[in-house]
Amino acid sequence: xxxxxxxxxxxxxxxxxxVGPASSAPDQLRRLLLTGVDVFRLNFSHGTQENHGExxxxxxxxxxxxxxxxxxIADLQGPKLRIGSFAEGAVALRSGRVxxxxxxxxxxxxxxxxxxxPEVIEAMTVGSTLLLDDGKVRIRVIEKGPDFLLGEIVAGTxxxxxxxxxxxxxxLPLSPLTPKDRRDMEFALEQGVEWIALSFxxxxxxxxxxxxxxGDRAAIMLKIEKPAAIQHLDELIELADALMVxxxxxxxxxxxxxxxxxxxxxxxKARDAGRPVIVATQMLESMIGSPSPTRAEVSDVATAVxxxxxxxxxxxxxxxxxxxxEAVAIMDRIVARVESDMLYRSIMDSQHPGLGRTTADxxxxxxxxxxxxxxxxxxxxxxESGSTTLRAARERPPMPILAISIHDTTARRLALSYGVHTxxxxxxxxxxxxxxxxxxxxxxxxxxxxxxDRLAITAGVPFGRTGSTNTLRIVYLEPEPQ
Length: 482
Fold this sequence. Notes:
Elements (H helix, E strand, L loop, with lengths): L13 E6 L6 H10 L3 E5 L5 H18 L4 E5 L14 E3 L5 E5 L9 E3 L3 H6 L5 E4 L4 E8 L3 E8 L2 E3 L4 E2 L12 H13 L3 E4 L5 H11 L4 E6 L2 H5 L1 H7 L2 E5 H7 L5 H14 L4 E4 L14 H12 L4 E4 L1 H4 L4 H16 L2 H9 L8 H15 L4 E5 L4 H8 L6 E5 L2 H7 L5 E5 L7 H14 L8 E7 L8 E8 L6
Helix pairs in contact: 1-2, 1-12, 10-12
């Protein structure tokens, strides 16, 4: 932690923190940033638009204070499927009993309860599974009518009012964007967030719908939390700008033992495609109420880092927990410890994605190899859209990537990506000759490189053309002539 107006991280994997009542005050946001947060998440499942707008303004003030681009994710709630209420608030359950789910809004009892989603009833089939209360109650559908389901209780002992439910084995005819989500999304876009995170994504059409509404005003992050999304994973990654491995809902709708391998697979696929990926949900869950995590949680965070994720995320730990700053500090230490392990570097080096076919891909790959060969202190990218920098991050180099952009939105989006230290410059650079001394100046200013060090610099010539990376230069930082 430092009070200096200029600072940088000494780790490659980024930390995302969710803002809530425990972390929304200006001094608390400042402490979180200085302790290790790179990107903030605004969870629109909670709070008001006014609250989120105030938090975003505070984040932008911190950005100006520290001259450091900070990414912000607006995480939309998505459809919330819930049953109705019970006359006595809750009912006891017993395996083998049958319960009816129907559209009648009257309070339920042990024999029936309202399921106010006709489209869900329509989509269900005999043999389908209903999971209620985060999977604590499991129901198997044994009969279906035009406006009701009969389900046999397979597991569970109690069910109370308005519990949420999941349907793991059925593709539901629901858009991931509810009317509330559309209002929240438009507000977030007007406020200028960098990322819109979509919940409840099931199929490629869901992303196309969102893209039509968002355009180029923000990047799209897909939360992979439905089994149906796994079936379309390659298409979804291609359509998205980033991925979030939302293990909480995945662990409810799929066997828990499947989630670790899915996590590794999603990270690898996202990396191959050059898309940033976040591992999220319950990473340091016990720290909501405890000043220290469990050993299993430490191992869980470490595993995500060993898997090569771009970022790890804290949810309730920083939004509503008693120890938000401590949670970030511990996550920062875990990440740094893993990245200093020789095994980590050997894993990253052994999992290089396939070389792309473009000139930009070839130059970026060469920059990584050349930077290693000359022990360069950083790979420098001058980028308009961020594509050059994302290619560099895809390689998972051992040295930082210094990304310089004249566009503040590009700089903020890149704050999520592996190893990237972003710098927003206000003065345009019109030639490679101008860029080299500017890169050397910035690298020294941020303590990335000093006199006698080398930098590997990539850019596109002519300047200002997106995706035109075609130049690589190794530069040596010489002392000023006396």
